[in-house]
Amino acid sequence: SGSMSNCIKETVGGYNEYLSSLREDKGDTVKVSLTKFDSRRIEQVYTNKCISQVKDMGLHEFMPCANTPLYDAIGKTVAEARAVASETDAVFIVILTDGMENNSEEYTLKSVRSLIADGQAKGWKFIFLGADIDAFSEARGLGIAQGSTLGFNKSDMGAAYSKLSESSGNMRSAYVSSGVQGIATMDCFSSTDQQELKPKL
Fold first, then answer.
1. Which of 9, 50, 56, 76 has the most CB within a 10 Å radius?
2. 195 vs 40, 52, 103, 143, CA distance in Å?
3. Alpha helices of 23-179 — where are they, by DSSP H?
4. pLDDT band, very low/low/confident/very high, at 160 (cuts 50, 70, 90)
5. Residues near 76 by Cβ (< 8 Å), separated by ≥ 6?
6. What is the DSSP letter of 54?
7. Long-range contacts: 48-55, Cβ < 8 Å, 24+?
């Protein structure tokens, strides 16, 4: 939404750092989807694309504006993931927002919670990154575990993405050794991680 306009460079830089960490895996074992959203439109930029084919985002490609249809964005992203993921795939859905839901038309909190619960039952990891909001309260409302939530100030966007990259690497290692069930109960972030980035609201 428009309130992200004051952290464009940090958001894009952090996202590109995350892509770089995913590229460290050899071959095309990692596939990425990206959904950008505001109240004008929800754009699924690419879906299930091999990481080797995903280019870094340019600053001109991230133009925050308007309101926050958070439920619609989550719902459409999860629906797309369900269409392409197999039962043995490790699926990580990362939600980044600096605002609370205020503009969805298709999905409700109840329907999104149901989609998330269905995914979690398959071993999917839902990760909530909340900037300048009460991230833990928002994530809890969606049914996302505290250990998969990170709250921070926008000024710490880069550090938040660094912790996400580290967590994703740990999860991928656990998946290789133990499969989907090996990551189902893992925390994405430690209490130390969360305390280090505890936002000043």
1. 76
2. 35, 34, 31, 21
3. 70-84, 109-121, 135-142, 157-178
4. very high
5. 35, 42, 44, 106, 107
6. P
7. 48/84, 51/19, 51/22, 51/23, 51/25, 52/23, 52/28, 54/19
Neighbour count for residue 89 (Cβ, 10 Å): 16
d(CA 137, CA 142): 9
Query: Could you tell me how far CA 1 lies from the centroid of its own chain?
Result: 16
Q: Is the pLDDT of residue 118 over 70?
A: yes
Burial status of residue 114 (CB atoms within 10 A of its CB: 0-12, 13-18, 19 or more): middle
Q: How confident is the model at residue 187 (pLDDT cuts 50, 70, 90)?
A: very high
**What is the average pLDDT across 79-101?**
94
Cα–Cα distance for residue pair 161/129, rounded to 1 Å = 9
- The pTM of this model reads 0.95
Q: At how many degrees (to 10) do helices 109-121 and 70-84 cross?
A: 30
- pLDDT of 21 reads 92
Which residue type sits at 142? L
Report the alpha-carbon distance of residue 6 to residue 18 in Å, rounded. Answer: 20
Beta strands in the chain (DSSP E): 31-37, 42-50, 92-97, 125-131, 149-152
CA distance 45 to 35: 6
* Closest to 78 measured CA to CA, from 122, 130, 41: 122
pLDDT tens for 54-76 read: 999 999 999 999 999 999 999 99
